[in-house]
TrEMBL record:
Keywords: Signal. The keyword Signal applies. This is FAS1 domain-containing protein. InterPro entries: FAS1_dom_sf, FAS1_domain. Residues 1-24 form the signal peptide. It comes from Terrabacter ginsenosidimutans. The keyword Signal applies. It comes from the Bacteria.
């Protein structure tokens, strides 16, 4: 069993100051084991998360707290697998909630998987693509998506212990509300060996008012022991 990598985890938590961006994608609607969602209104906006994700120009930069790496991961999966359910992120009429790891979160993951700390976002992306491959990358992205009516931060903070069915078949995540007052939420994933991600309280309700909503993460959700 692997030991938790505390130094990069602390580095990721220290940078919890993300600003707008967005997320991955869903498959066919799947019900949460415990409902946390509000009803989708017929007047809810249909701006897709893809349009938010690409809003900053689709390029790597020196800001580790935006979402360039997840953007490139989505594009890479769709280039290799055009029919992937990840493509539903372009369909703003499809309701879903996505949990969006920032670039620092992927830097931590790459360091954990390869044993090397990469200094550039492009290096992190290349390392992950080489280490896990397209199919695993697709699975990780789908594991960050919960199909169905959007879960706002208000919903989530009232949903301690809720189990959310993700777009990755058979895989779920559990909501652990650490503090409603501080708006601290942990998501418990299926990897028993590494720290579970916190939702970034400064990156909640991205794309709010639309059928596709996202919340930032400071670590990457893992669908299995990696």
């Amino acid at each position: 069993m692997k030991k938790r990598h505390l130094v990069p985890v602390v580095a990721a938590l220290a940078g919890a100051l993300a600003v707008p961006a967005a997320v991955a994608a869903p498959a066919a609607p799947a019900a949460s084991t415990t409902s946390t969602t509000s009803t989708v209104s017929s007047t809810t906006g249909t701006r897709s998360l893809a349009s938010v994700l690409l809003a900053d120009g689709n390029r790597f930069d020196r800001n580790w707290y935006d979402y360039d790496i997840v953007t490139e991961a989505v594009l890479a999966v769709l280039a290799a697998k055009p029919d992937s359910p990840v493509g539903l992120l372009t369909r703003g009429e499809v309701p879903l909630t996505a949990f969006l790891p920032n670039d620092r979160a992927f830097q931590v993951l790459a360091a954990d998987l390869t044993g090397r700390w990469y200094d550039k976002e492009s290096q992190v992306f290349d390392a992950l693509a080489g280490a896990v491959g397209t199919d695993a990358l697709e699975a990780v992205l789908l594991y960050h998506v919960v199909p169905g009516a959007p879960i706002t931060s208000r919903d989530a903070l009232r949903s301690d212990s809720a189990s959310l069915a993700t777009a990755l078949p058979g895989a779920s995540i559990t909501v652990d509300v650490l503090s409603r007052w501080l708006r601290l939420i942990r998501l418990v994933d299926n990897d028993r060996n590494d720290a579970d991600p916190l939702v970034n309280p400064r990156a909640l309700d991205l794309n709010k008012g639309n059928r596709q909503i996202a919340h930032g993460l400071v670590l990457v959700l893992r669908p299995k022991d990696l």
